[in-house]
Structures are given as C-alpha cells and as structure tokens.
C-alpha cells in the first residue's frame, strides 16, 4: 500500500497593525472534526525549510497549520544556521507585544476565513518560537493549547513573561532537554511555581541527554532522535486532547 501523499503548502498574506505578514499554510488532507488550527512559531532562523516541514507534519495530524513570518518587520526571509549573530539580532528586535500582534492577526484570519474559533487553535513553537508561544499564551484569551519546545527567555531576560503567566487560559506543554544551558532547572522550577500559583495547567517534560534544539533534524549536531520522537508523540497526543480528536 502506498503512503498517503504529504500535504502541500502555500503562502498567504495576513494584515497586521505593523504591515503585511507572510504565512506558510498547509491544509490537512483529513481534517479533524470540528476543524482546528495550529500556529507553528519559527526558530530564530525564520520560516525555513525545516519549519515548513514541521508545519506539514502538523497538517498531517489533521490540523490547518500556519507558520507566520515573525521577522516581517525586519524584512522576513531566513537566516543560515551558522549565522547566529544575525539570528540573535532579529529575535532581540521583536518585542512580546509585537509577537502578540502577529499571533492575533493569524488567529483573526483563521476565524474570519476558516470559521475556526480561538478555543480550537493552538500554538506550537521551537526555540525563539517556544518563548513566543508562551508569550502569546499569556495574552491571548481563550487559546486552546500551547506547546513550547525549548523556549529560552521566558523566566529571565529582556523579553521574560513570567509575570504574565496568570493570564494563560489553556493547557501548556513545555518540552526541554536536561542538557540545555538556555533553560536551567531553576528556570523550569520558577515557571512551574508561577503556573501552580496561578492555577495554570502546565506540564513540563525534561528529556535526559538532550540539549537545545533537540527536535531539529536539520541540525545533526543538535538533533536527539529519541527525545525528538518522544516529544513529537507527546505533542500530537496533547493537541488531540486539547483541540483535536480527543476533544468533544
């Protein structure tokens, strides 16, 4: 039996208060019912081939999948994995409020064009996008779910949002390697304590032996196959439970 073809993606343009933003979109071949959407928030290197591939993987689970170009204010495009200085400059240039603006713009498009309400939407982010996912969750009332793959800077730093955790309305899944120096144990403990105090459904999974960017199979030196496989299984189960097949 031949495998089902991978969903094909296209690009659309969404208006934001800071100008137009390109969004990579993939429609599911076999959508969940009722329909649901997942925003895939990029790493520090833009909506590159790897992020597009992850977006297609999300769509293969039955979700309308959309990856917004969060660097649209600084020209968009992608950055080579070797050019860390440029990537760091780009993420430093985007504020939590601008992330909120972009996520809300995509959610409004999904509601207007696809009739999918925010309660049936989730954000899944990686690296910078992991932090951006939690940032969005702290300001988007009613968001169905949030998944943050190794998102640094949530607890401390210029873009920290620990003081906004009480605003999170939906469940949050945090996935991090125990060898990731950007998210030390004390940061995980602080996030967990803030969530507990606020009554937020926060689940943290720590993967032994995995470092930062362990899910990125486009970076062999960072990729940790076992952790990546388990993290993706947890993510798809979490999405099914919160916005997908497991939700009545």
UniProtKB/TrEMBL annotation:
This is Dienelactone hydrolase family protein. Residues 21-241 form the Dienelactone hydrolase domain. PANTHER family: ALPHA_BETA-HYDROLASES SUPERFAMILY PROTEIN (PTHR46623:SF6), CARBOXYMETHYLENEBUTENOLIDASE-RELATED (PTHR46623). One of its GO terms (molecular function) is hydrolase activity. It comes from Amycolatopsis dongchuanensis. Pfam families: DLH. The keyword Transmembrane does not apply. It comes from the Bacteria. Keywords: Hydrolase. Coiled coil: none annotated. InterPro entries: AB_hydrolase_fold (IPR029058), Dienelactn_hydro (IPR002925), Dienelactone_hydrolase-like (IPR051049).
């Amino acid at each position: 039996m031949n495998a089902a073809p991978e969903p094909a993606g296209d690009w659309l343009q969404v208006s934001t208060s800071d100008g137009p933003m390109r969004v990579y979109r993939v429609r599911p071949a076999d959508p969940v019912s009722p329909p649901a959407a997942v925003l895939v928030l990029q790493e520090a290197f833009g909506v590159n081939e790897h992020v597009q591939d992850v977006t297609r993987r999300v769509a293969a689970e039955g979700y309308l999948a959309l990856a917004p170009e969060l660097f649209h204010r600084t020209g968009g495009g992608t950055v080579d994995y070797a050019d860390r200085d440029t990537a760091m400059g780009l993420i430093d240039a985007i504020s939590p409020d601008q992330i909120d603006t972009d996520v809300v713009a995509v959610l409004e498009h999904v509601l207007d064009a696809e009739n999918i309400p925010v309660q049936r939407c989730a954000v899944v982010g990686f690296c910078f996008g992991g932090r951006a996912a939690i940032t969005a969750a702290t300001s988007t009332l009613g968001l169905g779910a949030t998944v943050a793959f190794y998102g640094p800077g949530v607890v401390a730093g210029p873009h920290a949002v620990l003081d906004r955790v009480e605003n999170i309305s939906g469940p949050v899944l945090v996935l991090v390697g125990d060898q990731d120096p950007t998210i030390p144990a004390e940061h995980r403990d602080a996030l967990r304590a803030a969530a507990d105090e606020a009554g937020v459904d926060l689940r943290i999974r720590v993967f032994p032996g995995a470092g930062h960017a362990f899910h990125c199979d486009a970076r062999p030196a960072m990729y940790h196959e076992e952790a990546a496989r388990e993290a993706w299984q947890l993510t798809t189960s979490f999405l099914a439970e919160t916005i997908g097949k497991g939700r009545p």
